[in-house]
Amino acid sequence: MKKKFKIEVDCANCAAKVEHAIQQIEGVEEASVGFMTQKMVISAAEDRFDEIMEEVIRVAKRVEPDFEILD
Asked: Disulfide: which of 12, 28, 39, 41 matches 32 by Cβ 3.0-4.6 Å?
C-alpha cells in the first residue's frame, strides 16, 4: 500500500534525516520525505500499514521533534 501525506518539516536536512530513519523501519518498502513539497510518501505492507505508520511517526518525532503529519 502506498499513501501520500501532507507534512510539516523545517528544513531540507531534517527531511533527509527523517526519510533515512523511516527507510530503516522494518516493513517500510519505500519512503520519501520532501521539504520543498512538504509531502511524505510511504509504501508498506497493507496488513501492517497502521502499525508501521505509528512507528514512522515515533521515529520521525525522535529525529525531528517539530515534524508533523497534517490533515
From this structure: 41
Residue 34 to residues 19, 43, 46, 47, 61, Cα–Cα distance (Å): 9, 15, 23, 26, 16
Name the one residue in this structure whose C-alpha cell is 502499525: 51
User: Which CATH architecture describes the domain 2-70?
Assistant: 2-Layer Sandwich (3.30)
H-state helical runs in the chain: 12-23, 49-63
Contact 66, 33 (CB under 8 A): no
pLDDT one-digit tens code per residue, 16-65: 999 999 999 999 999 999 999 999 999 999 999 999 999 999 999 999 99
Q: Are 5 and 39 in contact (CB under 8 A)?
A: yes
Domain boundaries of the chain, sorted by first residue: 2-70
